[in-house]
Amino acid sequence: MRQLFSTFADVRRLATPFFKGEERWPARTLLAIVVALELSLVGLNVVYNSWNARFYDSLQNKDWEVFKRELLFFSVLAAFFIIAAVYKLYMQQWLRIRWRRWMNEKYLDRWLHDSAHYRMRLTGDVADNPDQRIAEDLEQFTQRTIELGLGLLSAVVTLVSFIVILWSLSSSMAMPFFGGDIVIPGYLVWAALIYSVVGTWLAHVIGRALVFLNFNQQRLEADYRYHLVRMRENGEQIALLNGEDAENRQLGGRFGRLVGNFFNLMGAQKRLTWFTAGFAQIAIIFPFIVVSPAYFSGAVTLGVLTQTALAFGQVQSSLSYIVNVYAVLAEWRSVVQRLTGFEKSIADAERIKDHTEIAVAGNGSDALKLSGLEVRLPTGVPVVAAGNLVVENAGHILITGKSGSGKSTLFRAIAGIWPFGKGRIEIGRGKKLLVLPQKPYLPFGRLDEALAYPEAPEKHKPEELIGVLRAVGLDKLIERLHEESSWPHVLSVGEQQRLSFARALLASPDILLLDEATSAVDETAESSLYKLLYERLPGVTVVSIGHRTTLKSLHGRSIRLEQSGQGLVEARAAPAT
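Request: output the structure for the sequence above.
Response:
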């Protein structure tokens, strides 16, 4: 029960914002319509129960006129039932897609805001495969919450409605017992209650393992899909290394774990289905067994017998609601746990940002200033100490050092996405900073979208796009500007780096951080690209990371990161040669 109440509390926390936020009036209106239609269906079932007694009594009495009248009444009743069922489903789906759209926007905003998605990865968050949680878990949450919520409402209202009918029918029935008649007030109600409570308890005992197994299955499915996508995106590197067999082994291992968990899930579902199927079949005949003594003694008619059996079935079904939906309930609970874990992981990432000791601020000058900057790992171990470093406006600095000395991490801190450490980073107010990584990011889609990213290509004139492509030596791509393709796979790494420089020319940043951004082009092309930057963006401040000695001549001064003890690397100025 503690777990159940905990789940309901999580569901309330996840669901309430939609019905209290900016979408509250459409959401509440749709919910009210769906609830009204659900209640209408319950009311029609109550009317149908009364009709059932009259109809079967007309058959027993062979009353043709009553039979015809009841057939006509049933036709009207069925028409209302069909209309209510159709529009309940339609409105329910409308509510569901609006809810999912709202949650999708909110989750994407929080996940992408202020690089929270990046910090979640740094901390080794428990929210594995966030793509699945946004794409699939939100859809399942909205669908299951509406379905289970309406089902529970229907069960409660049906129980209240039919328990009155069943109690009144029970009071008029005397049970033959050892030659006499015994009247037990509401004995049919007590029989349904005992039958359902025992069934619910047994369903929980048999099926409780499904919650963990469903949670694990979703995680393993997403993990397997992620590694398939990763293999596709890195197909060239895998082919060059003849790594297909290794990938096959790894993917086979992941799929094997998926299959193993699925077999466990199959076993748990089989055990639960044995019980629920048997429980449902017994429930069909159980009310007739309970009422049959009164019928065969002549205390009730055939119509009352069928009416009682139907009312008993409705009460028993309402009381056994959890039994009937236990497998769905277990799956839903695992979805709620995954979304709760995802929200917690986002909150942790936001908390890390809020409590960082690295202050990024603006200053009145055009310089880039680092004051007492010490960059650390997420574990708190210090990596790089930049001390007091000043890069004047339009200055060009080269940072060198051994691989793994923390150069790229220092850039992440300057860019404001690395929260671990302490110190102060000052950038001129209103100055625009851009980072060009070694492996550029090219989104799927049109080439002009990849070139202008993250801005829209419409912000630039066509001649500007053509001009920067020609300037960086990518003339052959000019005719493909509006072509859609998987550009990370179409272009070589060198061409991607050239495109990244073209992107920088379009963006016109004030401060440009180049993290081995020319490692895949030859030295002549490297020199041309740097000179192009200085020519087209004369006021740009450039800070580069690189290992080539030829880069020194392209920068005014250089700084080397060197080991200083206790694993800490310090930045030490050195004259450029």
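The longest strand covers residues 382-391.
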